[in-house]
Specification:
Elements lengths: L12 E2 L4 E12 L2 E13 L5 E2 L2 H12 L19
Antiparallel strand pairs: 1-2, 2-3, 3-4
């Protein structure tokens, strides 16, 4: 079951900054492994797509990965190398 995280729940708007609070999918790399963490709260710039995370959110992301919590599911993904010819 996949969802469009970039259109999910707008909780509050910040018109002067053009930021909205959303739930996003976060990609985290640690010791050669890539982890996906879903439903992460972030402030997102609607114009640029740049995401901002609260310090406690960043700490929780580290705890999830480094603490080796059981994932809710596992996905397999292909890996490509970009090579200029």
């Amino acid at each position: 079951m996949d969802r469009l995280y970039n259109t999910e729940i707008i909780m509050k708007e910040y018109p002067e900054e053009r930021l909205v609070e959303r739930r996003v999918r976060y990609t985290y790399e640690h010791e050669g492994q890539v982890y996906l963490i879903e439903d992460v709260p972030a402030r997102v710039n609607e114009e640029t797509g740049e995401r901002y995370f609260a310090p406690e959110t960043v700490e929780r992301l580290r705890e999830i990965v480094k603490g080796q919590e059981q994932p809710s599911r596992t996905v397999e993904t292909p890996v490509f190398e970009y090579a200029s010819n």
